[in-house]
Design goal:
CATH superfamily of the largest domain: Type I PLP-dependent aspartate aminotransferase-like (Major domain)
CATH topology of the largest domain: Aspartate Aminotransferase, domain 2
CATH class of the largest domain: Alpha Beta
Order of helices and strands: HHEHEHEHEHEHEEHHHEHEHEEEH
Number of strands: 12
Largest sheet: 7 strands, mixed
Helix content: 25-40%
Shape: globular
Distance between the termini: 65 Å
Strand order of the largest sheet: 1-7-6-5-4-2-3
Strand content: 15-25%
Bound molecules: pyridoxal-5'-phosphate
Structural class: alpha/beta
Number of domains: 2
Amino acid sequence: MPANPLPEISPDTLAVVAGRPARGPGSELNTPVSLTSTYVGGGSIGDGDLGYGRFGNPTWEALETALGALEGGSARTFASGMAAVAAALHLVPAEATVLVPHGAYNGTHAVLDLLAQQGRVRVARVDVTDVEDVRAGLAAAAGPLLLWLESPTNPLLEVADLAALASAGHEHGALVVVDNTFATPLLQRPLDLGADVVVHSVTKFLSGHSDVVLGAVVTRSEELLAHLVRHRTLHGAIPGPVEAFLALRGLRTLPLRLERSQRSAAELARRLREHPAVARVRHPSLPDDPGHELARRQMSGFGALVSIEVAGGAAAADAVVDAVRLWVPATSLGGVESLIERRRRHAGEPRVVPEELLRLSVGVEDVEDLWADLSQALDAARGRIAGAR
Ligand code: PLP
């Protein structure tokens, strides 16, 4: 099946129809879970012959077709988002300099720090909300370059001008990679904005039900795709077929889930701003959010993550997490259930993330129930902190 069977249809429809088996009388509507470690072969392995379970699997391919169609490139799935991140980082030779946002996902920082300690890459941290800062970083860096972008960033929700940054990166010969986990291809398509590679934690919105760990890389370059496939085959971070099936099943409802979640996120952000226990709300939907204007131009929605800074510091933020009953205190994001987490509880969280920041992943529950629980938890925490004084 071609990467995008019906290129003129909307992404919402594509999420439903892409990656289905060829249509015909008696054909299955869904690609089944293909549980096999090998394939019956003949002489040499030719085109279309998967050969062995580490080389390919029809269930992965169904998910890859759908993801590729949504992002506008060719997708390959990996065992986790981090496996996808690692594969993308291997696209540049040893001794390359990787420019990464100050506030990127902590796992990306951790793997880059490890590679830097091993002398495999150099790492430079840049402010991705400031194109001039990134330009200066590119100009100052030596050797092959990789510009790593996230937008909105995790968990500061800063918005980066992907088109301007991709073009600045290319002027300096950098490979430009965008982690599109937070936005998903329904809200922004980085390859259209000039990026060379898109990375996803499929674990999050794309799968959407907190029951799968999976990753993906997408590109339009045949050469990069060949490197990525070779990396996956040789390093072995392959997806499980059951996970691939579940992820594709989840992807079918992404437009509906995202529509509801981001509507609720914007409503909660608006209300949270008025709450006396909240010192700052970060969500690009807010008219005075630093990323608002750019997000309006670059994205087709503001996303379902909201970050708040609780008045009273880390103890007050922890008290909020302790007091919620409907929101789930847990890491991760992008599922149907709403999660809340103080990010600095992770030792590896970048220091630019305030101690009192809570990341809220807004699910698909009724927004009034979400607000009732959150506001009672904020009130309770405020009372506890005031009582302790
Ligand atoms: N990228 C981002 C933005 C993430 O938030 C995460 C996980 O939280 C990852 C990558 C890593 O994905 P995974 O947990 O699926 O390995």
